[in-house]
Structure to design on (839 residues):
């Protein structure tokens, strides 16, 4: 016979006002299995909890019901108290008679009857609660960071400085990401590379950080604290440990292709480092375009290399590493193909990469029927950058002339779901203001126009920055541009000024579009690979938009930077540090504790239909062989990995033989709760 | 302002199977906001609407419950990513089964209620209670027994 204690809380007057708690306690005491009842003013107070513990010890109770507020409030409190008193915490249940009874009903008679009913249902349920033990799992104290942009760099440094070994997986040959492309940063106009490259060097010199550049994550198995990552290290065709980064090979290489780092505005050699300050300073051979790999000709780089470190036979290497936590920092790209509304222009970096050895090495660029002088924000950054294709002089891509009139168009592709995405791309107002300033500083007599919808400059020093841009000769026009067309060697911009109500035509030498930030095109593939969720745009979803903004939907995987949503650099860095501190929190313990409310399998009854494997959203269920003591195979059965199981219970519902059960919400418990419902109304 | 509860000749028994992340929290919010709704409902708290087995509903009907509410997170908001989609499909299939057996489908209500929709929760409960009150007592399932559930629910030793 069960010995259950029932503790009815008056919650001051909150419950007692509409519920006759003494009556509830008395009636519940008559139920079979109830050995002890209490009616107390504040169960959650220190004396209330002491009384709770004492009652458990004195009466040797094997289960407790606390009829009080919502389990969200004090379930943990009373489970902890029960543990202190020597009772298994999972033998404590809360009957919610405050939020769902006393606070929503005025009639004392009815509320009392309903409270009795709720308590009775929980008492009946409790009889089938099993004592559960929390799972303990070891933690591998190594972190994996996917993406080597500013978010990945910041997180890696934070973790490594806390003595946690880190691996960075970066797809490109160098760290740096999109921030390395920027010329200067708002709102202080300090040079982006000047603040980024020291950090890149710090990463490369840190003994606890290993960089896997030119590599991709193929697979991630396991669960929080115990991940196993399969990483493909693409063949660089260069022996990394011997290379000194002297530059002989890329200087001598006779073949060039469009430089992706410069957004296609310049050419790079086929063996290359993306930019001069690249980390690691080890070149890679672009095998798609190298004639050595296409038709087995050339091989000049191998001849000029003093260290003999060019290896054309190198193969991709696949390595497996163990990690305890993962930070995803895959970043963003600018929305491609937003140009349709402006006359069928195709952005240059969308042209297929081909072996174009004959194409001239720098500007001007071929004009095959496009408005070449319509560029996007990142392309402008490259033009303005001292390390860019023009050496920091602003020249237009078509003929290399200094543009006298530049039109900037904000909100291209953003804030309009018919022309792109619905969200505000957030950083465009700021970087367009920055662009006007960079342009004015570069071309003193130049004229700049900004077509904008609204100015959104919420941030420290941001509004001041916009005001500064507006006072430095930039003409801000509130309105949209309807069409861009060619007029001689100029671009005719047709738009409207909605303040004056007039249509506007500007003959511009160059047009800069502030295109929307979107996730990387393979973001959804990455999300599926990692088992995290993403929103309709492909940004990774956080666990809770306000209270858990860096946790992904999967335990042990954290998000940093623009892969989670549009962000500027300070926000990205802040989120990266937050993600790093989450990892430190996880690694601060030797063992992870996990709530035991997970599914368990009755292997005897399992009949191998694998429905549970199909429905499990977390891939937590595996197939396992059941053997006898001699090791002979008996049968297959499902097996739940308690580290991965989140306790949703989908498997329990679909199981045909009812051999998989969700602890804490078993069929027995639910049936017991249902059958105790008498509907006693008055 | 709270409503005056009027007593009726017939008070239906209503059972709600809800997920703990959305609807249960929504009902808690109704309490915290001191809203007022019909007291006929009893809740069974489950981790996810996908955990709701149609057999629970059968058991509830067998127990003499006059109406059943199934509720979880809105599509796309499931805490477990996809649990509520299973709940939705299961509901469609189960309704057909109920229909086949000649049970009035009005006795089974399915709705999405998020943790913020306390007002929707009170509305669903009030409207559903009134509807069931008009339909009257539910007897179709009263004599049916589910041997498995019967076997499970023995008096605890």
């Amino acid at each position: 016979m069960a010995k259950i204690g029932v503790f009815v809380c008056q919650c001051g007057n909150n419950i007692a006002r509409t519920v006759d708690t003494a009556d509830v306690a008395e009636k519940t005491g008559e139920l079979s299995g109830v050995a002890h009842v209490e009616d107390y003013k504040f169960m959650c107070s220190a004396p209330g909890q002491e009384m709770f513990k004492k009652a458990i010890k004195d009466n040797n109770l094997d289960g407790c019901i606390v009829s009080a507020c919502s389990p969200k409030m004090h379930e943990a409190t009373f489970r902890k108290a029960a543990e202190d008193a020597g009772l298994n915490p999972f033998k404590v249940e809360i009957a919610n008679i405050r939020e769902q009874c006393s606070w929503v009903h005025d009639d004392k008679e009815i509320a009392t009857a309903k409270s009795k009913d709720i308590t009775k249902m929980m008492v009946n349920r409790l009889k089938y609660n099993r004592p559960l033990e929390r799972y303990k799992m070891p933690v591998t104290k190594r972190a994996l960071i996917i993406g080597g942009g500013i978010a990945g760099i910041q997180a890696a440094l934070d973790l490594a400085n806390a003595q946690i070994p880190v691996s960075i997986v970066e797809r490109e040959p160098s760290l740096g990401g999109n921030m390395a492309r920027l010329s200067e940063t708002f709102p202080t106009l300090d040079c982006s590379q000047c603040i980024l490259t020291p950090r890149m060097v710090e990463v490369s010199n840190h003994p606890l950080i290993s960089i896997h550049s030119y590599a991709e994550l193929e697979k991630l198995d396991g669960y929080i604290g115990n991940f196993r990552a399969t990483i493909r290290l693409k063949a660089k065709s260069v022996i990394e440990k011997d290379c000194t980064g002297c530059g002989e090979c890329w200087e001598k290489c006779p073949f060039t292709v469009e430089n992706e780092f410069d957004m296609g505005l310049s050419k790079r050699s086929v063996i290359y480092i993306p930019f001069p300050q690249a980390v690691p300073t080890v070149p890679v051979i672009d095998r798609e375009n190298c004639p050595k790999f296409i038709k087995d000709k050339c091989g000049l780089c191998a001849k000029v290399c003093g260290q003999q470190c060019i290896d054309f036979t190198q193969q991709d290497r696949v390595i497996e590493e163990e990690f305890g936590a993962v930070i995803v920092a895959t970043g963003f790209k600018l929305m491609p193909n937003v140009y349709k509304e402006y006359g069928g222009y195709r952005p240059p970096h969308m042209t297929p990469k081909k072996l174009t050895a004959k194409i001239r090495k720098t500007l001007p660029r071929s004009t095959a029927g496009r408005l070449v002088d319509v560029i996007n924000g990142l392309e402008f950054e490259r033009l303005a950058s001292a390390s860019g294709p023009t050496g920091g002089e602003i020249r237009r891509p078509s003929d290399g002339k200094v543009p006298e009139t530049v039109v900037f168009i904000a909100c291209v592709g953003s804030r309009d779901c018919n022309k792109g995405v619905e969200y505000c791309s957030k950083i465009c107002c700021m970087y367009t203001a920055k662009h006007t300033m960079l342009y004015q500083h570069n071309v003193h007599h130049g004229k700049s126009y900004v077509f904008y919808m609204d100015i959104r400059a919420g941030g420290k020093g941001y509004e001041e920055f916009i005001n500064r841009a507006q006072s430095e000769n930039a003409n801000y026009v509130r309105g949209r541009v309807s069409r861009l067309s060619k007029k001689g060697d100029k671009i005719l911009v047709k738009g409207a000024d909605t303040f004056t109500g007039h249509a506007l035509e500007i003959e511009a030498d160059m047009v800069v579009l502030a295109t929307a930030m979107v996730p990387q095109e393979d973001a959804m593939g990455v999300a599926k690979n990692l088992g995290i969720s993403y929103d309709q745009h492909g940004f990774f979803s956080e666990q809770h938009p306000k209270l858990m903004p860096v946790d992904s939907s999967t335990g042990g995987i954290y998000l940093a930077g623009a892969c989670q949503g549009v962000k500027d650099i300070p926000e990205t860095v802040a989120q990266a540090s937050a993600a790093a501190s989450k990892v430190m929190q996880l690694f601060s313990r030797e063992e992870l504790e996990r709530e035991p409310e997970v599914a368990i399998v009755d292997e005897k009854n399992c009949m191998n239909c694998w429905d549970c494997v199909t429905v499990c959203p977390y891939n937590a269920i595996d197939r396992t062989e059941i053997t006898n003591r001699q090791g002979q195979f008996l049968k297959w059965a499902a097996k739940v990995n308690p580290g991965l199981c989140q306790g949703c219970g989908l498997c329990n519902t679909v199981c045909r033989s009812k051999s998989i059960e969700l602890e804490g919400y078993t069929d027995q418990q639910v049936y017991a709760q249902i059958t105790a419902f008498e509907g006693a109304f008055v | 302002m709270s409503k005056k509860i009027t007593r009726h000749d017939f008070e239906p028994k209503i059972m709600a199977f809800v997920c703990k992340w959305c609807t249960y929290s929504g009902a808690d919010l109704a309490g915290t906001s001191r809203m007022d709704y019909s007291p006929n409902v009893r809740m069974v708290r489950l981790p996810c609407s996908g955990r709701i087995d149609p057999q629970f509903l059968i058991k509830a009907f067998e127990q003499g419950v006059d109406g059943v509410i199934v509720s979880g997170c809105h599509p796309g908001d499931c805490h477990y990513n996809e649990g509520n989609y299973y709940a939705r499909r299961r509901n469609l299939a189960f309704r057909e089964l109920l229909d086949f057996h000649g049970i009035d489908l009005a006795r089974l209500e399915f709705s999405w209620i998020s943790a913020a929709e306390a007002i929707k929760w009170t509305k669903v409960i009030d409207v559903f209670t009134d509807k069931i009150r008009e339909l009257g007592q539910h007897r179709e399932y009263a004599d049916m027994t589910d041997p498995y559930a019967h076997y499970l629910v023995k008096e605890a030793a």
Q: What stands out?
A: The beta strands of chain B are 14-19, 41-46, 67-72, 108-112.
